[in-house]
Design goal:
With 95 residues, the protein is mostly helical. The protein contains 5 helices and no strands. The longest helix is centred in the first third of the chain and has 17 residues. It starts with a helix and ends with a helix.
């Protein structure tokens, strides 16, 4: 039940962030989808090497957020980028 709820919440968050007036688009210079792709790729690597677990989502999200925000959008990590990374990672774990 909790995994289904979490999956629905993640999908809702990601869907809302893709909408025209997305709050994520404001800080990425229109590179939200590229930022999500980077976070997904980095998250899959962390999942495969065993560093991404339910207990490490927050720390991995901060690391991935900093890496992808700098690489893709040329910005520093913000609470919004960490939130996006957390949603992406939780989506990976829910699969």
């Amino acid at each position: 039940m909790n995994k289904k709820f979490l999956a629905v919440a993640v999908v809702s968050l990601l869907t809302a962030s893709c909408a025209g007036g997305s709050s994520f688009g404001d800080f990425t210079g229109g590179k939200t989808s590229e930022l999500k792709s980077c976070m997904m790729s980095e998250g899959q690597v962390a999942l495969l090497n065993g560093t991404l677990t339910n207990g490490t989502v927050t720390s991995v999200a901060k690391t991935i957020s900093a890496t992808c925000a700098k690489r893709i959008a040329g910005i520093e990590e913000t609470p919004a980028t960490v939130s996006l990374a957390t949603a992406v990672l939780n989506g990976l774990l829910a699969k």
